[in-house]
Amino acid sequence: MKSMSTNANSGYGIPTHQIIGPSPSPRRGRNYLAPFASSFMGAVFMAACIMLWSVAAMARTAPESFADLAEEFSPAVVNVSSTQMIEGGGGLEPFQFPPGSPFEEFFREFRKRQQPDQPRRGMSLGSGFIIDPDGYIVTNNHVISEAEEITVILQDNTDLKAKIIGRDAKTDLALLKVEAKKKLSAIKWGDSDAARVGDWVMAIGNPFGLGGSVTAGIISARARDIHSGPYDDYIQTDASINRGNSGGPLFNMRGKVIGINTAIISPSGGSVGIGFAIPSALAQTVIAQLREFGQARRGWLGVRIQGVTEEIAESFGLDEPKGALIARVNEGEPAEKAGLMAGDVILSFDGKEVSNVRRLQRIVAETSIDKTVKITVWRDEEKKTFDVSVGQLEKFEETAETSSGKPGGGKGTKKVAIKSVRPTPSALTPGLRSRFDLSEEHQGVLVVGVDEQGFASERGMRAGDLILEVSQEPVTTPEEVVAKIEDLILKKRKAVLFLME
Question: Which helix (H) or strand (E) holds 349?
C-alpha cells in the first residue's frame, strides 16, 4: 500500500607532543605597566593580554612530522591482490566503422572465426590493514569481490594466501585471514565519533600498485552521503587517496584507525582532494560481526521511512522538521506487531534521538537482534511510546527473495500541495473494481482522476490509487476526502498527508 502527503496550500601508542603556536611575550618592565596597574583600565589591559595569550596557546599548528607514525604503523598495512576470470568479448576491433555500417558486422564475425574470444584472468589491487596479530585483515569488499584467489603482500614483500572470513556489500567491508609463520604487526581502532572537521589525518595504502605510500591531510567534512549505500556516513578528507588506496587505513594523530579509505570523487581518476573513508564507529561493528558470524547481522523494524519536511512537520503539528516518517509498514514484521502505523513519525529509538532518516537507519542496524527497545512516535499530535522487538534484516531479505514473485503490499505516504491536489475521488463501484482490478477485499476511496500537470501527479498519485486516510484520519467516502482537504485549506495548512494503497 502507498501513502501520500500533499501540500495543503496548493592510539598512537606513544603520546604525541602537542606543538603550541607561538604567542607574544608581554613586555616586562615596571615603567611599562605601572601607569595601568593602579587603574581600572590597567586591569582590563592585563586581562586582555592574558586572554590573547591563552587563545594563542590553544591553537595547534601542523605536526612537525608524520615520520614516527608512518614508521610505527606501516608494517601493519598490506597490499591486497585478487585475481578473477573475465569473460571474453572485451577485445578491441582491428578496424573501427560508423555504427550500422555493413563492414562493422562483417569484420566482427571474421575476427570471431579467426580467434574466438576466450576467458582471461584479471587482477585488481587494493590495500588493507592487520587488526589482529593472528592474521585478520580488513579491506573493502569491492577489492576482493568475485575473487578466485587473494594474495596479501606484507611490507617485507612476503606473499601470503588469504581466505575470506566474511564480507558485506552494503558497507563495502570485508575481513580476510592469513596464516603467517611470524607474529604480525597490528593496529587498533580509534573513535571516529570524536574526530572533528579540521583534525589532521594520515592515510597509508597502495596507490596504483606502487606499494606502501603515506599521505596526510585534514578531515574536510563528516557524515557525507555519497549515495553508495543505505548506511552512508563517510568521513571526507583531502589526504591524497587514489586507485589502489581502497581498503587502507585512515589514522588520527594518536595512531588509531578512524576510517577505511574507500572512494574518491575525481573527473580525472586521480586525487583532487576529495576522498571518503568509512568511519570506524560503523566499520568496527560490522567487522566484529563478520568475524563471529561470517556475515553482518543488522537490526530490522519492517518499515519504509522518509524524511520529515517542513510541510509535513507543519501538517502534523510538529515544532520542527525532525524524525523519520513511516511511509509503509510491512505485514508481520516487528513494527506492525508492536502497533506502529504508516503516518507515525519516529522521534526516538532505544533512548537515542532520531534527527533524520539516516540516523534512524544506522541506529536500527547497530541494534542487537531480538532486543526489545522503546520507540517514541508522534501520532495524532502527541507522543506515544511502543515496545518493539528488533528483527534481523538478513532474514527478511531471504524471505523477500523467496517470495519475490508475489505482488507487494503495504501502506505508504505521499505529500502534495493542497491547492494543486484536487484529485477526483469516487466510491468503489462494481464497474470501477473491474476496471482497476480491485477485489472485494479492497476498501477506501478510489482516485479516478489526477491533473497530470499538478503537484499530486508529480508526487506519484495516480488513477486507481485507494485513499485510506487524509492527514491521519480515516476516510470512507469521496465527500469525506473533499471535506478534509477544504478544512485544511481553511486552517491554512501547507500540506496534507495521504495514506494510500
Answer: strand 345-349
Using one digit for the tens of pLDDT, what is the confidence trace for 404-454? 443 344 455 555 445 445 567 778 887 777 777 788 778 888 887 766 556
Residues 427 and 422: their CA atoms lie apart, in Å, by 16
Q: How far apart are CA 478 and CA 6, in angstroms?
A: 17
Buried b (16+ CB within 10 A) or exposed e, 234-253: bbbbbbbbbbbbbbbbbbbb
Q: Residues with catalytic annotation?
A: 142, 172, 246
**What pTM was computed for the model?**
0.65
Query: What secondary structure letter does DSSP report for 407?
Result: P
Q: How many Cα atoms sit within 13 Å of 398 on the Cβ side?
A: 6
Compute how many other C-beta atoms are within 10 angstroms of the C-beta atom of residue 392: 16
**Mapping DSSP to helix (H, G, I), strand (E, B) and coil, where does residue 81 land?**
strand
Report yes or no: 9 and 417 within 8 Å, Cβ to Cβ.
yes
Residue 324 and residue 332 in contact, taking contact as beta carbons nearer than 8 Å: no
Cα gap 160→461, rounded to integer Å: 58
Q: Parallel, antiparallel, or unpaired for β 249-251 and 299-300?
A: unpaired
Burial class (CB in 10 A: 0-12, 13-18, 19+), 148: exposed
Provide DSSP, 306-346: EE--HHHHHHHT-SSS-SEEEEEE-TTSHHHHHT--TT-EE
Burial class (CB in 10 A: 0-12, 13-18, 19+), 262: buried
